[in-house]
Amino acid sequence: MTAVLSPASVQDIAELRQLYFDVYGHGYPVPLGSDPVVMRGLITGGCAHWLTARAPGGDLVGSAVVLTEPGNRIGKLVGLAVHPAHRGTGLASRLTGAVCDEAFGTGLLDSVYATVRLVTEGPQQVVVRNGFRPLGLLPNAVEVEGCETLALFARYADGVLERRVPVTSVPERLSALLSAASRGVRIDYARTRSAPCRAAAAAEAAPIELIAAPAFVRRRFLELFPTADDRFFPLHTPNAVVVATDGRFEAYADLDPVAGSCALVAVHPRPSAVAGALEALIASVTRAGADYVEALLPLADTDALEVFLASGFVPSAVYPAMRRLHERFHDYVVLSRTSRQIDFRTTAVSPLLQPYLGAYLSAWTTTYLPLHEVSR
Model's pTM, two decimal places? Predict the structure, then answer.
């Protein structure tokens, strides 16, 4: 019989926690499935679309959430879980479609993205059946059952991709990624020229400090980036800041030691200001428990892209039409770096993601293997 979908309520929290435990055990690294305070805030705070599924007998057997935040027109699909006894019934796909339809139905979102585990091809098929398009791979992005690679997918509101602002030139190391996106998202990057990377300007490496004081960091972050237009890394809140002791830059990070990951949310005064300091920054966040670091940069910001590429970051995913500015949409790219060995042998990469795997391997090879080794 068909499960009944309904909005989550505070009364569901205990059953939801049990569901996530049944599905993931102790390995689920997201408070949404384990922390009752966080769960209550999402259910009552007005910034989440949360649907549950109940079997005819009343048992809670499924859950899916689209997170949103004020000031950004991007949502994130998270927390998709179906009880093991109810898998294979199409419930995961039904929950995904229903919660995304509800979120887009508000008219407040331009896109919804999802980071999908690659333990099996099933989750990839679920999002693709519901209109999501593949955008790239995030190798070693999270610690769940060991160090896992995630895939990035996005679903767009009608007309969004048609209002992209074209990018005329990118560093040539991004060309394979854009070629993969042209096939996976079916957009045209043919007119985007690949330019050889300029020689990185030498920058004196000033000592740095990592400050992990979440309340202070958030206050300082909002002082430097007071409006939503000044900051852009949707659904990430910094809880740490890496500062150059000479005051040259402040790099704000969402540091998650449980997941083993770190997102560089913003750099003041500009992303390229970290030139010469990224090695020290990586070492600092690694000591704090993050083996994976990612940065989200405008595809048109060549200066920042070249700084990160020169410091061992690899193009991992592209997010076309990610940011709306004055009714036009701008493309962003995810660059990542991991300090752990990458192992794709147990990764279930579907045919839709194969071009991105090839693009990542090509960029990684160019970054980390000597030219004479590549030519062999």
Answer: 0.93
